[in-house]
Amino acid sequence: MELEGVEIEDTFAEAFPIKVARVLITAVNEKWAMEAAKETTGFGTSVIMCPAEAGVDKIASPEETPDGRPGVYILLCTFGYKALEEQLLARIGQCVLTCPTTAVFSAIKPEESEKQFNTGFKLKFFGDGFESEGELDGREVVRVPIMGGEFVMEKNLGAKAGVAGGNIFILAKDQMSALTAAEDAVSAIMEVEGTITPFTGGIVASGSKPGSQKYKFMHATTNEKYCPMLKDKIEVSELPPEVNGVFEIVINGVSEEAVREAMRAGIKAAVKVPDVVKITAGNFGGKLGKYQLRLKDLLGL
What we know:
Shape: elongated
Helix content: 10-25%
Structural class: alpha+beta
Radius of gyration: 21 Å
CATH topology of the largest domain: Alpha-Beta Plaits
Order of helices and strands: EEEHEEHEEHEEEEHEEEEHEEH
Strand content: 25-35%
């Protein structure tokens, strides 16, 4: 199979169920909303060792936010709701409450939620008795007086089942071509609402295989079959002779369809870059997760 002259391997990305909260952070301007979003989603690349997978979803215009200010949507993902509730409380309390001019709202409607966490209700007690409750744009909010003015947060945050681990591998003739293609793919995925690419800059340089048995302190090790420096040193390499650059993009989303759309957008952007040789995906033979996202199906090939 080919797309724009680039080989698309007939394989699938193996994804798995996850619990996800979608949160809207607003501020006096986009700069401060993004500062809070980036801090809140830090150390959120992989649940292999991070307490949550997290990332920036999309920019919100003032016209679509409850307080009429610029905003940023983020996703936080964990395996269970208990862990997700803990991460919401810790990350919003430490990273958003402390950031100038910010406010927080749920971006999952109550009727779409499987769980409702009273994160805002708990954080109001930072006000030490000076806090209050009210309504804003039809939402129940808490208001906490702080040195920088007032912190406003929706009383409850919604969460639901999502999908994590959608992925694509970009194989190119050299490292910089692969990186350019990966950057373009991430930019395209940013346009797909309800999805994130949780790794640094959206790109995985150190694609891994889980289940390391050699080291107790290491939960995953390098995916040697896709390491260009090892293709002539191991018995079985998955890389064509001309490939010398490989990057992976991992995608989480609020639904299987959102992840499929993001993968599709990423692939279509990546294949337009010169010297991209092949697009494939990572899977573990169906042992990791129940979602098998076939490249040919989502591309209609």
